[in-house]
Design goal:
Length: 458
Amino acid sequence: MSWDLGIFTEAVRGYAHLQAPMVGIRGENMDLLGDHWHPILILLAPFFRVFPTPVTLLVGQSVLLALAAVPLTRTAIDLVGRYQGYAIGAAFGLSWGVVQAANFDFHEVAFAVPALAFSLCAYIRGDNSKTILWALPLLFVKEDLALLVPIIIAMVVARTRFRGRRFSQGTVLACGLALGVLTTSFLVKIVIPHFNPNGVYEYWNEGGCLDPKLHTGVGKLLTCVPRQFVNGIGDKERTMLMTLLPVAFVALRSPLVLLAVPALVARFINVMPSYWGTDFHYSVVPMVVVFAAAIHGLVLMRESREREAADPAETPESRTWLRVIGDAQLKHGAVAMLAVAAALTPSFPLQDLLHHQTWFPDARAEAIKRAEATIPPGVTVETTVEMLPALAARDQTLWIGNANIVVPPDYVAFDIDRTGWEGQTSALDFVVSRHPGYSYQEVFADRQNNVFVFKRTG
């Protein structure tokens, strides 16, 4: 699954050589800042300059995901208890949202994971300046995550300046949400189109009736948006359930859980079913939020019990079912989180570590490696997805799935099973059919595994 890894490798290679992140894989003349807003990727450039390989991105992503466990674990140890804290930290590391993100290529949202963890843990501890400072990097991770920054700042302002004044706090939070929407809108409507070769934001079509081309009035929006939201409701309900399950639903005890709502709503309004489920990397940000909210929920429940113990007049006369559940969550919540994480492991990619093929490449993978080795650095190469990352680290790379490649590449390298080959009489005929008027010579062939490399000769 190397399409995204190839794209980001080519972008980071551009930054590493002090150039714009031009990515031919994504399209002709495509500056990747015109695809999504993620200038934070430039932080990987120095490491890539020393280690020019896609593995640098994968290692960086792993470090970022693991780093988020540090504030979550330490905050839980300090405020909940030592062993509970270790259990919560381990549960986060094993949680399916984190595992899915680590498994599926590389994505810029990895930078948001530790930033959010440090920010929300600082909020739980009452450290307002660190809460805001750790939230600020989200402005440079992705356009939709910029929405959270004004909201987090508004949370701090509401708590420090308007404590106990519910109406004023609500007003401040509403202003924070509105400013967040404006920030994201500015990035989507002004900044990203500025870098896009076509002057547009290319993902409006995934919003269905939110696409400006389809706007037919506010009334139409008020009817079609709810329909988009409930479409595929079964998958969406399962995703919401699976988001709360790793924290044993303790996150519902904290208002911080509401920070996961924007990411979930954006996915559920999207008309593409691939966003609705538990696949890919889309749940890693909500996963950080619900773990921070779970820690906060345990802290709030403990503080409530301590107040009751200090003032018997505040002790409720009867034990409601909600209180009984709360007592159980306070006592066993951390262990339950770890148990859930362990129970879900067989259903998600962490189980792949137990499989032989994960550790020992097959003959086809070896053939692809040999094919990549025949292509020199600094050339233009058109290739299939599995060869994209390694070649993007040293060549100008094009994806063979793009039909609008104007300049014929110096090399064409492919696994013929992944090309969309329509039964031409030979691999050479396939290459020539894609680039008529130019001649190519075969320089590598593993016919048993259908892997080929051709060099342009004229």
